[in-house]
């Protein structure tokens, strides 16, 4: 099924069905985003080294905590 066909099919959904499809798409996008973050910051990821540097700075006490209580 093409994207054009999916768009047309969506126009025929009831409000309940549209909400169900919308939630499915939201969950799918969130899952893809989570996978990308894990890939980027996990071992061998393109930002893993940066994360290690940040962790080292935190461990050394070289950071300013962010607080919403100011």
Plain-language structure description:
By secondary structure, this protein is mainly alpha-helical. The protein has one domain (3-59). It has 3 helices and no strands. It has helices spanning 3-11, 15-41, 48-59. The longest helix is centred in the middle third of the chain and has 27 residues, at 15-41. The chain is elongated and about 60 Å long. It starts with a helix and ends in an 11-residue tail after the last helix.
Keywords:
70 residues, 3 helices, 0% strand, elongated
The radius of gyration computed from the alpha-carbon positions, rounded to a whole number of angstroms, is: 21 Å
- Beta-strand residue fraction: under 5%
Count of individual beta strands? 0
Termini Cα gap: 54 Å
- What sort of overall outline do the alpha carbons produce when their principal axes are compared? elongated
Structural class: mainly alpha
Count of runs of 4 or more consecutive helical residues: 3
Domain count = 1
Mean pLDDT: 92
Major sheet summary line: none
Task: Identify low-pLDDT runs.
Answer: none
Helix content: 55-70%
- What order do the helices and strands follow? HHH
Helices, strands, pairings?
Elements: H1 3-11, H2 15-41, H3 48-59
Quick structural summary:
This protein is mostly helical and 70 residues long. The protein has helices spanning 3-11, 15-41, 48-59.
């Amino acid at each position: 099924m093409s994207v054009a066909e999916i768009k047309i099919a969506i126009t025929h959904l009831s409000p309940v069905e549209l909400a169900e499809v919308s939630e499915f798409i939201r969950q799918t996008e969130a899952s893809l985003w989570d996978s990308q973050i894990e890939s980027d910051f996990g071992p061998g990821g393109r930002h893993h080294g940066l994360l290690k540097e940040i962790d080292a700075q935190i461990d050394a006490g070289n950071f300013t905590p962010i607080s919403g209580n100011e």
